[in-house]
Each structure stands twice: as structure tokens, then as C-alpha cells.
UniProtKB/TrEMBL annotation:
Cellular component, GO annotation: plasma membrane
Annotated membrane topology: Multi-pass membrane protein
Record keyword Transport present: yes
Principal cellular location given in the protein's record: membrane
Protein's recorded name: L-lactate permease
């Protein structure tokens, strides 16, 4: 264990924590500085050559663009298409016409709709949209911000059409389906618990929150119908569809149970949209659903044909170099773009209008693109130069067999630093695998623990809180929101650590 090298290796991580969490430097600027600083540190502290450090960074930037940024742009694009066509308004109207019981509305909007938005778009939409609607419907702004931040945790693992997990598999070299399955196992209990927490906070009367109006069965089913489909889909299909299917099954179940209950607080409002309008509103997302299914491993002939259209790039030219594969047709980004253009055309948008929306989407994500490029470039330099390996060896030496206990906490830290589950996986995914290999335990289980932990960090990340305060008109109240969210984040993390160690021991993964 080389403590001097360890000190040098953790400087980029400490910089990200301080710059984003303490000094509140802009994310894109902080990450760019971190990227450049990491290149310099790799040469000074680890003997990495200039050429190797630059090519490692360039490989990271290329990986950031494909598939990460490609999927981000496509996911936000499909949301913007739906918003411009009026489809998103129709979807919201369908949900808010069902009831005036705020407890049920929170389950529908923060949990169900929020989970769906996270699944297909992510990157703030799942907090901003439900939170603003809840405030519009009369909920206290701080309460709306908190419930939406808590709701936007476990669904983020498979958000943006599975991008965090597919990225984790890519940076670690692990099988994506196995990683997905382990993530869904680790998050199962938390998915079941979160709806109860949301209702508890919304009502504010303690356990009386679950009395009357069919709220208790609705809360139980909100978790069950989200969690169970995820287990099966991750086991047999991978990370693209779990949150999409889970959120849709959850929404459908809540709609049915709300209509069956016909409780006293049911809304008298009539839903004015015709059946054809409702179908049109959902069309882009229906197309995403079926395109992903038919291109998945369930249909091997289609899957293999699409996967065969790829380009292998050799960018990094140093030790342990791996080619970077660009999957042109099988990328979720390609499928989402196709669904967006098909759905948008049927909803009445011209091709020119959709291209304009796409350009606006790219401009909207400018800072995000810089941030992602910088963080992935930084992580690649850290990985190839041996910085991550040094940190892993030191952590294992210091914690020994207790390392799995802190494994999810590292994921929490990553998302708190970067505001992104995907970036947390890029930053620490390889560290978890190397630690697992050193301890001779299952690397899939610890990689999944990083992903699961990253979902907890989402509720306290400065970026998420900024989105929540902006959506609820609470600008300047970020500290209040962070203080309230921190308790639930700690509770979530403790439960997750117990699950990771408990089930890991039971299944002989640790």
C-alpha cells in the first residue's frame, strides 16, 4: 500500500467533492478542471506518458459521446417532442383527472409518472415535472420537492432506457444482463418501501396516513407492481425496459385500483381527451417499448443483425488498451430517435419542426455534454494510469473483509459528486470490480452495489436539489431541502448496505 500514491490518486475525487459540494462551482467547469488536473497528476504521480494520458482521455470523451450523450440527447428529445405535440399534457390530464386525494396523486405523479419519465428521459424531468404539477394541485412546495426527490431514487438505476447500467457494464467489462439482475435484487426492498415513505410524508399524520380511501392497498401495490416486473425483465432482457415496464404496470394498477375504490375524495373532474388523443399521446413511448423489445435478445436474429453493424476504434495506445465499440443500430439512442420521429409525425409535427426541436435539445444539454465528456475522460485516465487500482488496493487494505459494507456508500458519493448515476458508475465502477477481485468475491455483486448506492445519492445531489427548487419556486432554499432529504438518504443507504451484505452472504456472493 503506497500512501503517497493513494493521496495523489484521490485528489481528483476530493476536487469534485469540494468544487461541486462545497464551493458550488458550475458542474461543467469543475469537471473540466478535474479532467485536466487528472491528466497532469497521472503523468507526475504515476509515470503516465503524455501520449498515453491524452489518448486515454480521448477514449473517455468518445465513450461519453457514444453511447452516453447519444442516449441522453435522444431521451430528452422524445420528451420534448411529446411536450411540443401536446402529448405530455394529455398524459398528465389523464392522471390528474382520477382523484383529488393527494396521497394517491403523489403515488401517481411522483412515483408512477416520475418513474416513467426517469425511464424514458431522466436527467431532471422526473423531478421537475411531477413536482411542478403537485404544487399546481395545492401541495406545499417543500413537501412536493422532498417527495419527488425521494421518488427519483430507485427508478434511476434503469433510467434513460437503462443507460446507467449499460454504462457500468461497458466500463467494467461485465455482462450487462447479470449486472442488471443483481441491481434489481438489491433494490427490491427499497422499491417496496419508497411508496410508503411518500404517503407518510404527504399526509403528515403518522401511521394514520394509510387509513381510508384505499390508500394502504394502493401503496403496497405501487411498490409491488414496480419491483416484480423489474426482477423478471432484468433477468431475461437486460436494463433497457425494467423501469419503463415497472412504471407503466404501476401506473395502470394505480389507475384501476383508484377507479375501483371510488373513494370519497375522488375527483369530480371529467377527463376530456378522446381515446384517439390518449393513444396518440403515448405513441412515441409505445414505439420505444416495442422497438427495444424486438431488438433485444428475445429476438436473436434481429438482435444479432443490428449488433453486427458496429465500428471498433483503437484510441488509447498504452498498456491494457481495449477497443471501443460503437454500435450504430442496436444503441438505445438510435431506437429512441426512430420512435421520436415516428411518434412526432403521427402527432402532427413536421420533419422540419422535429429537427428544430432536436437542435434546441442539443443546446439545452450543452453543459451536460461538457460535464459528461469531462467526467468520463477523467475516469478513463484514472483507470488506465492505475489511480483507481491504487485507491481500490488501499480501501481493501484499510477495510479488509468489511469493504462490501462501504461499497454502496461509494456509489452514493459518486452521484452526490456528479449528480448522475451514470457518472458515478463511470467514476467508481472499475474500482468496485478491482476491489472485488482483490478480495476474491463476486465482482458483479459489488458493481451492482455501486449502482444501487448511486440511486441513493440522487436525492441529495446538488443538481437534483437545484431542479427540485426551481420546479417548486423555492430558489434559495436548497439548504433546507438538502437537510430534509439527507435523513431519508441516510436511511435508504443503511437499508441498502444491510441488503448488500445480508443477501450477499446468504447467496455466497461475498
Amino acid at each position: 500500500m503506497d500512501l503517497l500514491k493513494t493521496f495523489v490518486a484521490i485528489i481528483p475525487i476530493v476536487w469534485l467533492i469540494l468544487s461541486l459540494g462545497v464551493f458550488h462551482i458550475r458542474g461543467d467547469l469543475a469537471c473540466m478542471i478535474g479532467f485536466v488536473g487528472t491528466i497532469i497528476l497521472s503523468m507526475i504521480g504515476f509515470g503516465f506518458s503524455f501520449v498515453h494520458s491524452i489518448t486515454a482521455g480521448l477514449e473517455g470523451v468518445m465513450m461519453a459521446f457514444w453511447p452516453i450523450i447519444y442516449v441522453i440527447v435522444s431521451a430528452v428529445f422524445i420528451y420534448n417532442i411529446s411536450k411540443e405535440s401536446g402529448g405530455m399534457d394529455t398524459i398528465m390530464s389523464m392522471l390528474t383527472s382520477l382523484t383529488k386525494d393527494m396521497r394517491i396523486l403523489v403515488l401517481l405523479l411522483a412515483w408512477g409518472l416520475g418513474g416513467f419519465l426517469e425511464a424514458v428521459a431522466g436527467f431532471g424531468t422526473a423531478v421537475a415535472i411531477p413536482a411542478s404539477i403537485l404544487v399546481m394541485l395545492g401541495m406545499e412546495p417543500i413537501k412536493a420537492a422532498i417527495v419527488c426527490l425521494i421518488a427519483n431514487t430507485s427508478p434511476t438505476a434503469f433510467g434513460a432506457v437503462g443507460l446507467p447500467v449499460t454504462t457500468l457494464a461497458k466500463v467494467t467489462g461485465l455482462d450487462v444482463i447479470q449486472v442488471s439482475y443483481f441491481v434489481s435484487i438489491q433494490l427490491f426492498a427499497l422499491i417496496m418501501l419508497i411508496p410508503f415513505v411518500l404517503v407518510y410524508i404527504t399526509d403528515g399524520r403518522g401511521m394514520k396516513a394509510f387509513k381510508g380511501g384505499g390508500v394502504l392497498p394502493a401503496t403496497l401495490l405501487a411498490g409491488l407492481t414496480f419491483a416484480v416486473p423489474q426482477i423478471f425483465i432484468t433477468k431475461y432482457m437486460g436494463p433497457e425496459l425494467p423501469s419503463i415496464v415497472g412504471s407503466l404496470v404501476c401506473l395502470l394498477t394505480l389507475v384501476i385500483i383508484t377507479k375501483i375504490q371510488k373513494n370519497d375524495v375522488k375527483s369530480d373532474d371529467k377527463e376530456e381527451n378522446s381515446t384517439s388523443q390518449k393513444v396518440k399521446a403515448w405513441l412515441p413511448f409505445i414505439f420505444v417499448f416495442f422497438l427495444i423489445i424486438f431488438s433485444s435478445s428475445l429476438f436473436p436474429s434481429i438482435n444479432n443483425a443490428l449488433a453486427s453493424v458496429k465500428t471498433s476504434l483503437h484510441i488509447y495506445n498504452g498498456p491494457n488498451a481495449k477497443p471501443l465499440d460503437i454500435d450504430w443500430l442496436s444503441s438505445p439512442g438510435t431506437l429512441i430517435f426512430l420512435a421520436s420521429f415516428l411518434g412526432g409525425a403521427i402527432q402532427g409535427l413536421s420533419f422540419g419542426k422535429m429537427i428544430a426541436i432536436l437542435w434546441d435539445t442539443i443546446k439545452q444539454l450543452g453543459k451536460t455534454i461538457i460535464t459528461v465528456c469531462s467526467i468520463v475522460g477523467l475516469s478513463k485516465v484514472m483507470g488506465y494510469s492505475g489511480m483507481i487500482d491504487t485507491i481500490a488496493v488501499t480501501l481493501v487494505a484499510l477495510t479488509g473483509p468489511f469493504y462490501p459494507v462501504i461499497s454502496p456508500i461509494i456509489g452514493v458519493l459518486g452521484t452526490f459528486i456528479t449528480g448522475s448515476d451514470t457518472s458515478s458508475n463511470v467514476l467508481f465502477g472499475d474500482l468496485q470490480v478491482q476491489a472485488a477481485n482483490t478480495l476474491k468475491i463476486n465482482p458483479y455483486w459489488l458493481a451492482a452495489a455501486n449502482m444501487a448506492g448511486a440511486t441513493a445519492g440522487k436525492m441529495i445531489s446538488p443538481q437534483s436539489i437545484a431542479i427540485a427548487t426551481g420546479a417548486t419556486g423555492l430558489d434559495g432554499e436548497e439548504g433546507v431541502i438538502l437537510k430534509k432529504a439527507l435523513f431519508y438518504c441516510l436511511l435508504y443507504t443503511v437499508i441498502l448496505c444491510l441488503v448488500v451484505v445480508g443477501i450477499g452472504k446468504m447467496m455466497n456472493y461475498l
